[in-house]
Amino acid sequence: MYKVYDISMPIYHGMVTYKNKPEKQPNIRVVQDFNQTSAYESRIDMDMHTGTHVDSPLHMLPNGGTMESIPIERLVGPCRVLDLTEAQDKITRADLERFAPKKGDFLLLKTRNSLTDDFGSGFVFLAGDGAEYLAEAGVRGVGIDAPGVERDQSGHPTHKALFGVDSVIVEGLRLGEVPEGNYFMVIAPIKVLETEAAPARALLFSGLTVESE
């Protein structure tokens, strides 16, 4: 038997957003209810970076690719969850070296952000030197349990280091119930066109046997 972990953030008005900025809050309203018609419908207005989402290079690079430039195959496959809950402010190269990242790894960074539902504006992030180390290792993707992979770094070196080696960035994961280890990952961003990001549902499977061709 395999176990499924839903590592997506629930989306609702009042949820944790980037630095808890009020303008980042999603707004959901009822368009029609059963007092008006025979069908109930709602409408949502939200930032593409709300909750669990995938960034495309255009987010930080003027000539970067939009969401269509990221094949879905790159978001499906083996991954590793790294326990970095001891990091208090940021994840550095020194924090990551013991995990010996390898070329082709997709790494999900579990921090103290996942231990609370309200980590506020002081969330743990991936520092520039940590991102450079992962880029040098040739990882295919990095996910983190924060609303942003970086927080207050001038020039956005973390995004740029990873995008520079065509590494995928996933933000807003929830990893509190997930032990460190190896998993099969499915991250499915909604299929919007010509955007710099897209909200996603993210799942991890443990004990899943995948037959090779």
UniProtKB/TrEMBL annotation:
This is Kynurenine formamidase. Its cofactor is Zn(2+). The keyword Iron-sulfur does not apply. It catalyses: N-formyl-L-kynurenine + H2O = L-kynurenine + formate + H(+). PANTHER family: CYCLASE-LIKE PROTEIN 2 (PTHR31118). Catalyzes the hydrolysis of N-formyl-L-kynurenine to L-kynurenine, the second step in the kynurenine pathway of tryptophan degradation. The keyword Metal-binding applies. Pathway: Amino-acid degradation; L-tryptophan degradation via kynurenine pathway; L-kynurenine from L-tryptophan: step 2/2. It comes from Aneurinibacillus danicus.
